Amino acid sequence: xxxxxxxxxxxxxxxxxxxxxxTTGTLSAAKLGWPQTRSRFFLVACKDxxxxxxxxxxxxxxxxxxxxxxxxxxxxxxxxxxxxxxxEYSEENRxxxxxxxxxxxxxxxxxxxxxCHQAGTxxxxxxxxxxxxxPAPTITTGFMSPGQGRFIHPTRRRAITAREAARLQGFPxxxxxxxxxxxxxxxxxxxxxxxxxxxxGHAAALSALVPxxxxxxxx
Length: 219
What we know:
Elements: H1 7-17, E1 21-28, E2 39-46, H2 54-61, H3 68-72, H4 91-102, H5 162-169, H6 185-193, H7 198-218
Antiparallel strand pairs: 1-2
Helix pairs in contact: 2-7, 5-6
């Protein structure tokens, strides 16, 4: 959106010249009632109908955000499910996780961080613990590592698992992440972390489909 070459503006102009109606906007997963704060920009172009404004879709679907525990509290640490396997942690990271729980904290103290952070850092969420009563932060490909963001489970002394991250991204438990052989943790982290939460894709699709479906019902 803020690219100095104006990529979005150029794209909109080209689409409109080609006869498309265009709407753009930013959709927030938390404002759509989802347990994650992720926001993403969408551009929807329709050839034979006028797309519904993304802002109107956002207003129609607006809901109170759910907490991180809402999405994953019922999951147990099942050692037979590869989606629930925890990562291995260094001694330092294990100590940092323990410190958060023993002190009932959600941000790691500067003294407990790596030396490069101890003079102060803008990234306080790194090595952080998720709040049980708030939406999770944006899930990234680093969700299995405490040092990549606020990815420590709210009530368990570990980072969230692939299954828990998938829940937060909107994947149903029936979604098959096994392509025939067990995927690596790295692959799982990329597939899940790079995904767009289901409610955002749903809202963007409604922007394009609602006008078309409305025309069909009138006809």
